[in-house]
Amino acid sequence: MALEIEVKAWLDDPKSVQERLDAPDSGFAFVKAVRKEDAYFAASDVKLDDVDLDRDRMVRIRRSARDGGEERVELTAKVRMTKDGTEVNREIETAVVDGAATEAILGYLGLVPLIRKTKRARVYQRGDVTVEINELDGLGAFLECERVIAEDAGAEAEAAARLEVQEALAAAGVSADRIEVRRYIDLLRERLERRGDQRRTTDRIAVPPDIRKDENGE
After folding, report:
1. Residue 198: is its pLDDT beyond 70?
2. Is residue 89 included in any domain, yes or no?
3. Is residue 62 over pLDDT 80?
4. Predicted confidence (pLDDT) per residue in 147-169, tens digit
5. Is the pLDDT of residue 200 over 90?
6. What's the domain count of the chain?
7. Which of 21, 98, 178, 188 is 20 to 30 A (C-alpha) from 166?
């Protein structure tokens, strides 16, 4: 497992931040533009309106691809903590060959899709920190600064990584008072609540088939 040290912040003017990062002397190197589609799976008795992300276990299937590029699919589970406005996530992640088959396996294990998010990202590198300008459907724009270290790297390495991501945020011209510590799932749920829609979002996610049933549904 690895430790993912991350800070994210709201962007009021993503275009100006992009121009800043694209400047030749910015210290940020553009890597790629990518679209990421995430589906979060949980036990069938977990409801969106009362999900507790510290209690209820979830896994994420992420499909990502550059424009016109080959799709990459990853299966991820995280245990999340927050320290001084910075996320410290214990992350278990693996690439999968067949996303549809993976969803079917999750369905066989009794997991069903809870919610999804889609984001379009411009990815940059600043030293060992990955920086993304993200546009999330239904939420808006965010800057994410992430540094990954080994889980057993120790407290000193973790503190240094937290400092690195905070420095990257400042170098991008984003104020610390724009940091958002809530999870994207929480923000999306709040948005659905404001719309009066508490339903599980399976109508917008392909539900994995139950491979325990035969052709007659028995």
Report:
1. no
2. yes
3. yes
4. 999 988 999 999 999 999 999 99
5. no
6. 1
7. 188
Contacts of 14 (CB under 8 A, 6+ apart): 133, 135, 141
Q: Is 209 part of a structural domain of the chain?
A: no
Domain that holds residue 193: 2-204
Picking from 28, 177, 45, the residue whose alpha carbon sits closest to that of residue 114 is 45
Cα dist from 10 to 21, 34, 112, 185, 207, whole Å? 16, 19, 30, 15, 32
Burial of 179 (0-12, 13-18, 19+ CB in 10 A): middle
Sign of torsion, CA 169 173 177 180?
Answer: negative
Two structure tokens written together for 173: 């011209």
Euclidean distance between CA atoms 164 and 167, whole angstroms: 5
pLDDT category at 81 given cuts 50, 70, 90 is: confident
Residue pair 210/107 in contact by the 8 Å Cβ criterion: yes
The alpha carbons of the chain give a radius of gyration, in whole angstroms, of: 18
The answer to whether position 148 is within a domain reads yes
CATH number of the structural domain spanning residue 107: 2.40.320.10
Q: Which of 49, 42, 159 is nearest to 109 (CA)?
A: 42
Residue 213 lies in a domain: no
How confident is the model over 112-136, as pLDDT tens digits? 998 889 999 999 999 999 999 999 9
